[in-house]
Amino acid sequence: MKAAPARRRLPVAGxxxxxxxxxxxxxxxxWRPWVPVPSSAPVGAAAVANEDAVAIxxxxxxxxxxxxxxxxxxxxxxxxxxxxxxLGYAYQLAALxxxxxxxxxxxxxxxxxxxxDGPAFGERIAALDPALSPDLxxxxxxxxxxxxxxxxxxxxxTAAWDAMAAKxxxxxxxxxxxxxxxxxxxxxxxxxxxxxxxxxAARSWWYISPVAQDWIxxxxxxxxxxxxxxxxxxxxxGHRYLAEKLAAALGELGDAPVTEAGGSETTPEx
Length: 270
Prior knowledge:
Layout lengths: L2 H28 L37 E6 L1 H4 L10 H8 L3 E6 L15 H6 L9 E5 L12 H15 L4 E5 L10 H16 L3 E3 L12 H4 E2 L6 E2 L1 H17 L18
Parallel strand pairs: 1-2, 1-3, 3-4, 4-5
Antiparallel strand pairs: 6-7
């Protein structure tokens, strides 16, 4: 007769143990002391390391009457898929700003990825002629780092930008983010765009985002991008369009002289 109460208590004891184990699992799931707390501060963003600091807006872009512009980047800057590389956007930009462009583009290169005709951005910057003395530097790209992942990416960008700023300390630097070679915009291209935008903001540098500004859309994609022979690079008309978009964007950053190629802006979507 005394055994029955004991048998009734067993399920209660088991339930209590289950509750204790469940609570322990919840606590461990929320508080895991062996996992470091992630930092929200961007790598290399010393200018905004203080949580109370406010990012300073870039100063308006002021160029001389006939500026010298160093355009540094990847295959898009090289002029790939144009009928002649010298019809690439970087070359066509010169007439639009009534200046001179010094074009340094290496196909396939990025901040982490070496190119087909040269090394990654950091090594290329180190090899630049310090006597160039540009008024403006446009640092373009690059979608070529998509497959490299985010490990070490911001550090590579920071080192490259430090080197460029040190070599041409009198020049203004504008970062031109990656433009999508295909739609919809890939996750890695979007991540690169976001990383570059944040790092530029930390330095109070202007950042132009072809992704955020919808330079290439479903409506104009085939007019801008050569998907066949050009292997998803801008066509000659596409390069002209990009040059005009970039010239207009520079004009919006300050009082840079901007004209229109052929007397009117090219709009491939029309």
